[in-house]
Amino acid sequence: MEFNFNNESPIYIQLVDKLKEAIISGEYPLGSKIPSVRDLALTAKVNPNTMQKALGELEKDKLIYTERTNGKYVTEDKKLVNKIKKDIARDITEKYITNMNKIGITKKEILSYLEEIGGIK
Questions:
Q1: Residues 15, 23: contact at Cβ < 8 Å?
Q2: Residues 15 and 71 reside in one and the same domain
Q3: Based on the domain organization, do 24 and 56 belong to the same domain?
Q4: Rounded CA gap, 97 and 22, in Å?
Q5: Closest of 36, 26, 32, 34 to residue 76, by C-alpha
Q6: Are residues 49 and 72 in the same domain?
């Protein structure tokens, strides 16, 4: 997993987003143990407290849970993961359509671009 941070939002929020992406994409499969806070912090080159804050948010969202003395694990709730995946996909799609509309691209043109660029039919 690679972490690239920007100045648009707090680092812990960017960590939450990146870790969510890793979970919904299957990089961290359902029920799997995730690396320790320290290991994740080293990988991301952030303070362990910042990583702990991000993991706390994921735990609050029920995407991960802690087993005392055994570490942190990805949820096994496939419905929850699919809902979050759908919500993120909807958000990305809405932003895409809004940005295309801002530059005068019509719905028909958007569909044409998607077919041409993305191989969508």
A1: no
A2: yes
A3: yes
A4: 25
A5: 32
A6: yes
